[in-house]
Amino acid sequence: MTGIDDIAAVSSPEMVTIPRSEYETLMSDNALLRSSLKDVEAKVEWFKSEVDKFRRMLFAPSSERFISALDSSQLDLGFTGVENVSSPVATETITITRRKGGEEKRPGHPRLELPESLPRVVTVIEPKEDVTGWKKIGEESSEYLARRRGSTYVKRIVRPKYAAPDGERVVIGELPLMPIHKGNADASMLAYIITNKFVYHLPWYRQRQMFKNEGLILPESTMIGWTRGACNLLVPVYELQKKQLLLSTYIQADETPIPVLSQDVPGSTHKGYFWVYFDPVTKTVVIDYQHGRGREGPTAFLKEFKGALQTDGYSVYDIFGRNEHITLLACIAHARSYQYL
Question: ∠ CA(131), CA(132), CA(134), 5° rounding?
């Protein structure tokens, strides 16, 4: 027979018995460690920003780079040990039940929290069918980060739910499609970030600072993920523009080098090439990226082209002079070059 101070599990595949004093100590330590964990997470975020800053100091273009003496004390986390303040108490025995084979649920990637300080623009979407006489039993709301000229706001979409009078059905308005599945970025925000990056040449960290000044903490990794998703959506547009260009009868072509960040050695770059194709009549421009400057890139790109191709004297283009469907034209700006003599 168990004592009145004992706690026993009635049905359990496994039982672990520990003294009550040890249990209370574990609970106290657990609370302290949870509190310390929040401080550690805050410091980790701060160190990530510091690492990004130092990386820019060392690897940014010379016009943006500066190196100063580092204070070693800044790298000290300043962690202190958690003192066990529990004192010995009378020993009691308790029983804790632990289920075998239980699978711990891992937390998923956290969704970007949208600050309450940002203004909200609410849109209510009602169900398509007539809900006259139906009872409203709740609503679902979704929030997306959006952009309008000069400011950031939150687009809130509210969809009321209605139950039929007979209680057999529940209807709700249909949620509009978003550019990124399960993302909370509106198309206007994606367009703003991409335009800043590729038209105005604003790096991610500068855009992050711009949003921070508006009260929005937007990590660089989030912007990169949004940009990657938006670029995938633009692939059909690129293919259509390429198809339109190749239907032309007159194209100009040239290639230019561009430094590309290397995935193998972080911080280093290798030389890639932008092959640029331009139709002077329709003003259509298509850029084809290649790792090198060989003939493989233009040969594959222009395999279906029929017409006049105007280039400089680079020898790679000579192969098109032997193509029965392509007339190779010299560049007037390079006409005096020895390559054409």
Answer: 65
